[in-house]
Design goal:
47% of the residues lie in helices and 15% in strands. By secondary structure, the chain is α/β, with parallel strands linked by helices. The protein has one domain: TIM Barrel (Alpha-Beta Barrel), CATH 3.20.20. An eight-stranded parallel barrel has the order 1-2-3-4-5-6-7-8, surrounded by ten helices.
Length: 281
């Protein structure tokens, strides 16, 4: 069933779990995530990131995501991940997405506030939730473009949170505390204290981006400290790539549809294992 971001976060809080948000830029990803969630009977968020426009245009993948969410046996929120401008967020809303993220996190603070407020005003007029980011990850969505600065300089500043929330009116806040998009080349060092400091200031749903590649213990700790939504994609996608490579090298089939099925099943198992960790008590 299709639900809003607020509804799915409320469901997660009732169960005392974090809700996983999985990018689904193609049909195999969609099937993998939704089948995993249904088998585990957990709520889930399926997301389309603007950086994947060249992989699957929003106009094509968006309606499929909405329809599959409606047909699902579990609560599913369809979310725009890392919308980069007002127009793209508007397009997602018009396609029936109940949740969008506007990401102005790399802009100057005042520009972030003003641009985010513009999206919030439009989205709320259409009954749509908005996520935004304060602080920034050292790599952009997709894992490219690592910043040539000390990552700690990009961490969320808790003292800015009350002002940011009051002036933007967002429904969920993504915070930066040491994670990164893409495949980790070295083990991330997380500043967990930032989560606690932000949580002490607000009850708004908190989001962790760059959720792939950290330990099970770290997942449990960030959830305990107040993270409600965890974005996950890179390691699931890599599991699919590794299975495609294995299938090709083993010469198991001459048909792409057989390879695609193997890839879907590999990503499903990866997503399922991750959802289990998010739902541990």
């Amino acid at each position: 069933m299709l639900v809003t971001l607020n509804q799915i976060i409320e469901e997660g809080r009732k169960k005392k779990i974090a809700v996983g948000s999985f990018n689904t830029p193609n049909f195999e990803c969609l099937l993998a995530v939704l089948e995993a969630a249904e088998e585990l009977d957990v709520p889930v968020i399926i997301a389309h990131a603007q950086c994947h426009e060249g992989v699957a245009p929003l106009s094509q993948i968006g309606p499929v995501m909405v329809e599959m969410a409606k047909r699902s046996k579990v609560p599913v929120c369809v979310h725009l991940d890392h919308g980069e401008d007002f127009d793209y967020c508007k397009r997602a809303i018009e396609l029936g997405f109940p949740s969008v993220m506007i990401d102005y996190s790399t802009r100057e603070y005042e520009e972030n506030v003003a641009g985010t407020k513009e999206v919030v005003d439009f989205a709320h007029a259409h009954g749509v939730s908005v996520e935004a980011e304060l602080g920034a990850l050292p790599q952009r969505e997709g894992g490219e473009g690592a910043a040539a600065v000390d990552p700690t300089a990009l961490y969320t500043k808790p003292e800015l949170v009350p002002d940011y929330l009051a002036r933007t009116g967002i429904d969920a806040l993504a915070i930066a505390f040491g994670t990164a998009h893409g495949i980790y080349k070295t083990k991330p060092v997380l500043n967990m204290d930032i989560i606690g400091k932000v949580r002490a200031l607000t009850d708004i749903p908190l989001v962790m981006h760059g959720g792939s590649g950290i330990s099970h213990e770290e997942y449990r700790e960030v959830i305990r400290r107040g993270i409600d939504k965890i974005n996950y994609y890179s390691y699931m996608a890599y599991a699919g790539y590794a299975e495609a490579k294995r299938t090709a090298e083993a010469k198991e089939s001459d048909f792409f549809h057989n390879m695609a099925l193997n890839v879907k099943n590999a990503m499903k198992e990866n997503a399922k294992g991750t959802m289990k960790v998010f739902a541990e008590k």
